[in-house]
Amino acid sequence: MLNKPISRRALLGGAAAGAAGLLFSGCTTERADGKIEVEIVSYKQEAVSIFEHLMEEFNAAHDDIYLNIQSPADAVTVMKTRFVRENYPDVIGIGGDGDYASFTDSQILADVSDCPTLDDVQDAYIDILDSVTYVPMEGIYGVPYVANAAGMLYNKDMFEEHGWMIPETWDELIALFKQIQSETPDIYPIYLGYLDTWTILSPWNSITANMVPSNLNYKVNLGEAKFADYYREPAERMLELLDYAEPGPFAYAYNDACTAFARGQSAMYPCGSFAVPQILSVNPDMNIGMFAMPSAERAEDRVVVSGVDLQWCVAETCEHKDAVYEVIKFLSQAENIQTYIDDQRAIPCLKGDFELDPLFDDIQSFLDEGRVLDYLDHSYPSSMGCDAQVQTMLLNKDIDAFLEKWDTDWQRYNRNVIRKVQDSKGQQ
Amino acid sequence: MAKDKVKERVNWPITILLIIGLITIIFPLYMAVVIAFKDPSEMTNDIAGILSLPSSWSLDNFIEAIQVTDFFNSFLNSLIITVVAVVASILIHSLAAYAIGRNMDHSKVYKASYYFIIAGMYVPFAILMMPLVKQTAVMHLDNMVGVMILYIVFYMPMNMMLYTGYLRNIPIALEEAARMDGASTWSTYWKVIFPLMKPMHATVAVITGLAVWNDVMTPLVIMGGQGVNTLPLAQMNFQTAFSTNYNLAFASYLLAMLPMIIFYIVAQKQIIGGVTNGAVK
Amino acid sequence: MASTAAIGSNRRKTFMAILIPVLVLFCAFNTIPLITGFLYSFTDSKGYGAFNIVGIQNYIDMFSDTRILNSYLFTFKVAIVATLGTNVISLMLAIGLTSKIKFKSALRGVYFVPRILGGLVVGYVFSYFFTYIVPAITGTESILANPDWAWVAIVIVVVWQACAQTTIIYITGLSSVPEDVYEAGSLDGATGWDKFRYITFPLIMPSVTTNMVLVMKDMLMVFDQIVSMTSGGPAQSTESISYLIYNNGLSGGQFGYQCANAVIFFILIAVVSILQTKFLNSKEEQL
After folding, report:
1. Does some domain include residue A68?
2. Predicted confidence (pLDDT) per residue in B104-148, tens digit
3. Which of A6, A251, B278, C255 could form a disulfide with C142 if both were Cys (CB 3.0 to 4.6 A apart)?
4. Three-state SS across A271-321?
5. Domain around A324
6. Radius of gyration for the alpha carbons in chain A, expressed in angstroms and rounded
7. How far is residue B172 from each of residues A285, B177, B184, B280, B281, measured CA to CA in Å?
8. CB within 8 Å: B134 and A84
9. Measured between alpha carbons, how far is B29 from B51 in angstroms, rounded to an integer?
10. What pairing do the DSSP bridges indicate for beta strands A36-42 and A65-70?
């Protein structure tokens, strides 16, 4: 079997022979006014106004580089179509997620180990980024910018009013759920929007990250472990959560859950910081807090799930990395990051004395001490439908079938990755 | 045909049944309208939150939707694409259907062409998408023109089917009469057949027009991220990864619907016109 | 006046002059990308970037993939039920809307509204309907949350939306029925059901064929309503083939594999529709 990647043009060439091959120049070139243009396509459409502002500021201060930041709707699809056209932007701003893993795997991104800004990035986030790629990579393929975090969102005012305490162990959490059920029958302890399968992964990630070895996926790929030996307890806890949520959570979508939590129908909502803007759109005055999912064996071992929400990746084809690094340096200036995190309620990936949103008060110490782990699903193959598999388990309550299917499917959907992992291990 | 005899009485039972049936249309529409007028903070998770009237009938959502979508530019782009696609579809597809439909019964080439084109209807767009992205870029068609051309191709199978089906009801004798008078096939088509297919033109215009007007995938992959938007592309701005403003989205959906309703009402007259046309035989 | 032979040859030339450019256009933007996609089905491509050639591995994998099998079962179940439902309802509507009724234009206009709304909007509205309104009336749980019944919700929505277009085609078909045929029929004493069964139905049989094929095709390709109502859930019970091809192929990085799926799907529905057309055409001739 042929394993060597071939260029896609070779394949397309045959089919589109009629259409003469007009090639696109990879990176943007010099502009008419002699400036070098740096084009960034960012997937953070919600941050469009901030970047427009930063763009103006940068361009006013530089006469050799012109910065152009775009934040189109459905940016990831736009990026993919541009890759197909081989019309690569200089920089893409994406999360440290499955798309990043797959872009890296497709050899689209350049090694940015020589980017000076990386010296200022917290090590924890470089490690997190490293854990996302299918195969441990040599080099660094993105400059982390900001992160988000997941755990349990809670209604601060409601907690204060009833004197509820933040739980630090699973037993305390369940006790709190029971207390809420008995004290305030009209408020659900939690609200779940499990119609949207991806929301199921939020509690799943934060429960499971606290209970399994952080390199479990890698060990499974090496053939040294099975998920069945580790995922039973997290699955049981996911089932347990259902007892404390609204009836029939599979009928409600993410938006419904955000609305319910915003309107005080539930005291907590197991989700991430990324849900906060949606919640505030319903109830702008709400005081939202977040605590770490208390599912570790010992309270002091708790970790917060946090992933790179936005990072700067440079295209392999880019011909003027220096200009790009200059732009990244500008974007990473403390005051610019502060502007961004204030507006987007994000967590900076860079070292420095930043003022975080009150949302993060309860997890600040975790962030400072680097007690953070990446979202597990970032290294799940998205085609495997892991979220739907957890949903199926929650619906038919059959943990054995769930575990068996997971291990079987993992082998199947990760065939290429497993081969690569074992090859690279063999070479060492 | 004697007109006086046909003055039948109005069929009231059917009229009433049809009016009752309207509930199935009006009710969902009512939901869309009240959601479009509400503020996100008015949404609650119960039947009242969905059905209650908005606290005020303010046009804020509509005004904001117009701003967010850059409505007039996006609207103009959508309009240009739709009009071109519809006009081209009517001209090209009806002509192609005429050539194929009149010959497929006695010529293998035409019959094969017919099935070849019809089969294109069953190609899932997802498989064409990435190859088309590449191809249109190479041909410098990664723009509105490319999108229009793609629509003409995408809707060819369905329209071909509609037109050939309709042609069967048009007697070949009509053409032969014209031919005997010395008219060429080309002019016979435009002078005799094309006008006779008016009801089908209206149907094709409505179906193709709406499909093009509402389509988001084609413009997204072919011309997405270039700053030129169609309405459905611009409407994607209401949905970011973790938040969707359904109220604004619904307001803009309703706005986008209005021109299509007007278009349909105009086209409908042609379809009804077909009732009398059909009798002129 | 020219000789008949010359006219015949001119006519043939004109037809060819029409056919060839149309075929070229069609091949360029449908057939060629399809072939390209077909070639991709032998690779592990993500749709972009570097890839490997994997031979027929994708096709072998497909046949042991229960998720794909389930999506075929779901899609055909929905398609068959929805196609029959849509055609029966639309034909009744079309007959109603072409008879001598009051407010004809207005009624036709309103009944067409579902088609004007895009699939996504309709999906959103009906999500609210099934999540909040139906359970409030019946006291049961939302069927969108029930893996055994969620497909019914999908059927209801797609039928609701598809009826508009199908009705229009039936109305067009009915309007091509010459009025004197009815008059002749009435003179023979045909009324009500008999009139429909023996006069109207045979005459609009071509519309029936067209509609059955078109609706079946639309239903087999159901996508938007799935995205906006269930995202394939609950428990993967409403994953349509198109949804799987799009979702796993383009978002999930399985482009090569899903191209293989698309090729099989394409062949399958092309066969289904040819059989369907043949069957309906034979009925047309009988009548």
Report:
1. yes
2. 888 999 999 998 998 898 888 888 988 999 999 999 999 999 999
3. A251
4. CEHHHHHHHHHHCCCCCEEEECCCCCCCHHHCCEEEEEEEEEEEECCCCCH
5. 26-148+307-363
6. 23
7. 73, 9, 15, 15, 12
8. yes
9. 11
10. parallel
Inspect the interface and report whether the beta carbons of C230 and A395 lie closer than 8 Å: no
Does A124 fall in a domain?
yes
Q: How many domains does chain A have?
A: 1
Q: Other CB atoms closer than 10 Å to residue A425's CB: what's the count?
A: 15
> What pLDDT digit, counting tens, does each position of A142-173 carry?
999 999 999 999 999 999 999 999 999 999 99
Does pLDDT of B268 surpass 70? yes
- Give the whole-angstrom CA distance, residue A31 versus residue A39: 12
Q: Identify the sign of the CA torsion A226, A229, A232, A234.
A: negative
- Under 8 Å between Cβ of A302 and A371: yes
pTM comes to 0.87
Q: Spell out the long-range contacts of A32-36 with Cβ–Cβ below 8 A and sequence spacing 24 or more.
A: A33/A66, A35/A62, A35/A63, A35/A64, A35/A65, A35/A66, A36/A64, A36/A65, A36/A66, A36/A320, A36/A323
- What is the distance between the terminal CA atoms of chain B, rounded to a whole angstrom? 11
Q: What number of residues does chain C have? A: 287
ipTM rounded to 2 decimals:
0.86
Cα–Cα distance, A364 to C207 (Å, whole number): 67
Distances (CA, A) of C73 to A393, C45, C237, C241: 21, 27, 10, 9
CA distance C117 to A207: 41
Q: Rounded distance, CA A83 to CA A317, Å?
A: 11
User: E strands of B217-273, at which residues?
Assistant: 239-240, 243-244
**Which DSSP string corresponds to C70-138?**
HHHHHHHHHHHHHHHHHHHHHHHHHHHHHSS-TTHHHHHHHHHHHHHS-HHHHHHHHHHIIIIIHHHHH
**CB under 8 Å to C72, separation ≥6 — which residues?**
C241, C265, C268
Q: Which residue has the tokens 């699973």?
A: A170
* Cross-chain Cβ contact A108/C48 below 8 Å: yes
Instruction: Give chains near A: 3+ CB pairs under 8 A.
Output: B, C
Place of tokens 């057309």: C277
Asked if the structure places residue A420 within a domain, the reply is: no
Contacts of B239 in chain A (CB under 8 A): 73
Q: Per CB distance under 8 Å, which residues of C are interface residues toward A?
A: 28, 32-33, 35-36, 39-40, 43-55, 61, 67, 127, 130-131, 135, 141-142, 144-145, 147, 230-236, 248, 250-254, 257
How many whole angstroms separate alpha carbon A52 and alpha carbon A313? Answer: 19
**Tell me, what amino acid is at A200?**
I
Q: Does a structural domain hold residue A204?
A: no
Q: Does domain C58-286 have CATH number 1.10.3720.10?
A: yes
User: Which domains are assigned to chain B?
Assistant: 1-58 (no CATH), 59-279 (1.10.3720.10)
